[in-house]
Amino acid sequence: MKILVPCKRVPNPELKLKIAGGAVELAGTTWQVNPFDEYAVETALRLTEKSKGGERSGEVVVVSIGPKDTATQLRQLLAMGADRAILVAGDDATLDADLVARTLKAVVESEKPDLVVMGKQAVDGDDNQVGQLLAGYLAWPQATFLSTLTLAADGKSATVLREVDTGVEERRVRLPAVATVDLRIIGKKAVRNEALAGPETEWEDTQRLASLKGIMAAKKKELKEITAESLGVSGGLLVKTVRHENPPSRKAGIKVASVEELVSKLHSEAKVI
């Protein structure tokens, strides 16, 4: 079982970004792995393990598109337990969801994984498009917003629970496929490979952290740097960002003397009831 996990580096969400000249200022920004992509890596590792930290069967390959220093985030994922990494040279300013999906399609065709697992979205752009576009370009089945994933013992299909507005849906998807995961995928029994782990197998209800042993091992693992051109990917952007603007400041609230006055204002002024 080979699992490919696309990952993106994002600005630290705890930092308050500034906008100047219609663009986001990223100078001095600290970067981290997109949290949903960390969950995807954890999912992939669990699918190749008999138990928490136990014997593994399979390969987890992480891939990212970004500048050379994105290697720092890929090394972190290698320290978590991923087997090797691929860095496709690129820059956020010259990427959109479509180009990312087409680039990943070329990586998939080169690597030939049995399953692609990725976060449902990146916390910077919040586009939630790449997984669906990638599945479309590959003509593969897709399973999105997953809270559980169980790989069949024969490795040919997976049963999933996916979150929808009215609750959850249970689906079976044939492999190879593209899966995007939500934060609940890191529940103790949310992920299982029936060929490796029994029904009582549990993991921690959080993604694993890199250990000192893992950090030292990551230094020796393969991190291959390539270009989109070497993959045969070309073409411009479908989406062009014109400018960024801060949202308008909120107006100060008002006080009302009674529930009746509140209802009246909601009805006649706010027109929400």
Protein described:
The chain is α/β, with parallel strands linked by helices and 273 residues long. It has a single domain, classed as HUPs (Rossmann fold, 3-Layer(aba) Sandwich), CATH 3.40.50.620. It is 23% helix and 27% strand. It has six helices and 14 strands. It has helices spanning 35-47, 71-80, 97-111, 130-138, 212-218, 259-268; strands at residues 2-6, 9-11, 18-20, 23-25, 31-33, 59-66, 84-89, 115-119, 142-151, 157-164, 167-174, 177-181, 191-193, 223-226. Strands 1, 6, 7, 8, 9, 10, 11, 12, 13 and 14 form a ten-stranded mixed β-sheet that branches. Strand 10 (157-164) and strand 11 form a beta hairpin. Helix 2 (71-80) packs across helix 5 and helix 3 crosses helix 4 (130-138). The N and C termini lie far apart (55 Å).
List its traits.
two-stranded antiparallel ribbon; Rossmann fold; 273 residues; 14 strands
Order of helices and strands: EEEEEHEHEHEHEEEEEHEH
Uncertain segments of ≥5 residues (pLDDT<50)? none
Total of DSSP H or I helical runs spanning 4+ residues: 6
- Helix fraction, binned, reads 10-25%
Task: State mean pLDDT (0 to 100 scale).
Answer: 92
The dominant shape is globular
Residue fraction in strands: 25-35%
List the domain count as a whole number. Answer: 1
Instruction: Assign the structural class, choosing from mainly alpha, mainly beta, alpha/beta, alpha+beta, or little secondary structure.
Output: alpha/beta
Biggest sheet, open or closed, and with what strands and sense? Answer: 10 strands, mixed
Query: End-to-end distance, in Å?
Result: 55 Å
Query: Can you identify the CATH superfamily?
Result: HUPs
CATH architecture: 3-Layer(aba) Sandwich
CATH topology: Rossmann fold
